[in-house]
## 1
Amino acid sequence: MTPRRGRTLTSLRLLAALGGTLWTAATVGGARAPEEALHRWSRRLLKHLGVTADLTGPIPEGAPLWVSNHLSWLDPVVFLALRPSGALAKLEVAGYPLVGAGARLAGLRFVDRDNPFSRATALRALARDLGRGRSFLLFPEGTTTSGQGLAPLREGGLRMAYRLGIPVLPFRLDSPDRHYPWTGDATLMPHLRALAEAGATHVAVTPGPRLHPQDYPDADAFVAALRSHLQGS
C-alpha cells in the first residue's frame, strides 16, 4: 500500500468513527445534548485532521450570534469547537458521507441557498432559536471563497438581528495553507485527502468587537459595519 493510499484510508476510517460518535452523542442526553455533541465532535475532528485554530485575540462575550467569512466546509467545525452552538449550513452538508445524518440529529439547520422559501424558513427558525436564548453561527456569504475579498452578503440574517436587537460578533478567517479553502466544484473526499496528506493545517481566527444594533442608526449601517469586519478592514 502506498503512503498516500494509507493516509486516505486512515482519514476515511477516522471520519467514519467520528460520524458514529456524533450520531451516538446526538441521540442521548438532555436538552443541550445536540449542541454539546457538535462541540465535542468538532474538537475531536480538528485534532485528528491536524487542523489548528489560532485565535488572534480574546473573544468578547455577550453575542448570541457569531458571523464570519467563509473559506471551507471546516469553518463551522472551527467555530463549533470554540463554543456549543447551533449553525446554519448549506443543504449539501446533509448529504455528506458518514457525517450528514449525524449532523442532522445533532441539530444542524440546513438551507437551500437558491430557494427563496428555504431561505425564509431558515431565517424564521433562526429568529426563533435566538429568541429562546440559543447561540448560533452564520456565514452570510452563503458560499466559500479563497479568502481574497468577500462574496456578496446574503443580508437577511444580519438585518433580522438588527430588527430583534441581537448583538452580533463578527470574525475573520484566514489560512496560510492553500489546501484549507474548499471552493468551486471540489468534493469532500478529495479535500479530506489533501488535509490528510498535508499533515498540519492552520487557520487564523480573528474576532472583531461585539456589535449591538442600538449603536447604529439603521440596518444599513449595521450591515456595513459587519461587512467591514468580515473583510478584515
## 2
Amino acid sequence: MTDPSHHSALEDAQGIAYGAAMAAFGITLLTHLGLITGQTAGLAVLISYATGWAFGLVFFVINIPFYLIGYRRFGLTFTLKTFAAVAIMSALNLAAPDWIRFEALNVAVGAILFGMVSGTALLALFRHGASLGGIGILALSAQERWGMRAGWVQLGFDAVLFAVALFILPDWRLVAWSALGALVVNGVIAVNHRRDRYIAT
C-alpha cells in the first residue's frame, strides 16, 4: 500500500518528467519571442543569444558545477532528481525545433503563457524534491553559509541579468515583456507553493 505522506518512485518519475517537459516548452515559447527569464535558465538564454549555441546544451553545461553544492546542501536524492530534470529539459529543448513551430504568437500572450507554463513546471519539480539547479541552489547555500537571504541573492542575480540583457537584446521592450513573464512565474510559485497545504512531500 502506498504511503500517503510520500510520493512513490513512479509518482516522482512522472512528476519530474512532467515538470521538465513543461519547462522545456516554456523555454521554447520564450526563445521564439526573443525574450529572457531569470536565474540559470535566463543566463543560458542570454549566452545562447550571444553565441548562437543551443540553449539545451548551454543550460546542461552551466548546471554541472551546481550539483556538488546541491549534494552538500540537499543530499544525493535531490541532486540525482535535479540532474534528471535538467537533462530531460535540455534534451527536449534541443529536439523542440523539429517538433514545435509557431505560425503566430503575440509577445504579451507568449510572455504570460511562458510564466504560467514555467511556474507549473517548477511547482511539479519542487513537489517531487527536484529543481532546475543553478542559482537557486547557490542562493540557498549562501543563506546557510553566510546568512545572506536566498531571495535577495536571487533577486540581485536577476537584476544584473536583466541589466545585461538591455545590451544584448535588440529592443528594450523585449526586456520589459521578459519581466512580465518572470513576474508571472514568481506569482504562480508564490501563490501555489505552500508545503503546509500538501499531504505528500
## 3
Amino acid sequence: MTGTTGEVIAELRGRVGCITLNRPKALNALSLGMVRDLMAVLLDWQRDDKVLAVAIRGSNKEGAFGAFCAGGDIRFLHAAGTVGNPQIEDFFTEEYALNHLIHNFGKPYIAFMDGIVMGGGMGISQGGTLRIVTERTKMAMPETAIGLFPDVGGGYFLSRCPGRVGEWLALTGDTIGAADAIAFRLADGFLPADQQAAVWQGLGEQGFADGAAVQQWVLSKTIAAGACQISVREQIDHYFSLADVPAIVAALEESDDDWARATAATLRRRSPLMLHVVLEQIRRARAMGLADDLRMERDMVRHCFYLRQGQSETLEGIRALAVDKDHSPAWSPARIEDVSPELVQAFFRSPWPAHAHPLAALR
C-alpha cells in the first residue's frame, strides 16, 4: 500500500516503508481513521518481502517533523463517550491491536520521535526497534490529568523503566526530554532535529542489504544525548516505591525538599481515583507480557467510560481540560484519602469472559 490516505501518508521509498502522520493542526492526535490506515499499511508491509524496514514521523504546520503525536483524539473520545457512540469501543480495541502489531512487527520499525510524543504517540513508537529522539522531544504519559490511565501498553513499557521511574511518570504525567528518555529506556538514540530530514531522505537512497542494515545506518547517525536532566532518581525510587498513593503523597508533603513538595502538589491535582488505579496497573504489569497488559488495559478503559453510572472520571477530566477548558475537574472521590479499595479493584475485573475478550487473539 502506497499513497496518501489523508491523515496518514504512506510511501515506499527504495525498500523502506515511510509513514508521515499528517494531522498537524491536532498535533497528529490519532483518530479512528488514522488507526485503521496505520494498521492496514503495516499489515501490508509486514507481508511484503520488498519492504525491509518501516520508518514513521510526524508533521507540523510548516512541514515534516516538529511534532510526532500528541495522543488519541480526546475530543472525539469525549463526544463519543457522552452519547455512547460504539465507535469508542472500536477505537480502543483497534488502537491496542495496532500497538501490539508494532511491538511484534518482525522488521525494523524506526520512530522519529521529534517534538511532542505523548499518550497514543508513545503507543505507536515504544514498540519500535529504534526510537529516535531530538532536542525538541517532549515525552509524557499525562493521562491522570484527564482522569484516564497510561494505556496503549503504558503499563508494559513504563513498568520496565529503571527503578520506580514508571510509577513516577505514570502518576504525575511529568514531561521528560531526550537524555532522560534514553536513560529511562524509552528511547534508543539522539539525533539533532536539523539532521532528521537528511537521514529520512537517505532512507530512500541507500542500497540496503537487509532490514538490519537500515537500522544500523540510522543508528550510526545518532550522537550522545548529553547529561540526564532528572537529578532526583534516588527520591523517585524512594517515594514511588511506597505501599500506596496516600503513603506516597503523605511522604512527599512531609518533606522539606522543593521537588518533593512540587510533586505532591501535582498529584493533588490529578484524579484521586485514577492515581490509585494507575499505581495498581503499573505494579501488576511488571509481571505481565504485552498481550496480557493490553487486555487488562482494554478492561480498564471500558470501566473508565461506561461502568461508573454517569460518574466517568475520564469524561469529566476531558471536559475540564479540552471542552469547557475551566481546568476545574470535579473528581469523585475528591480526595486521595477517600478512595476505597472496592472502587479501584472494579477496574481490574474484565467485563468479558476470556474467550470473548475483544483482544483475545493477541499472543
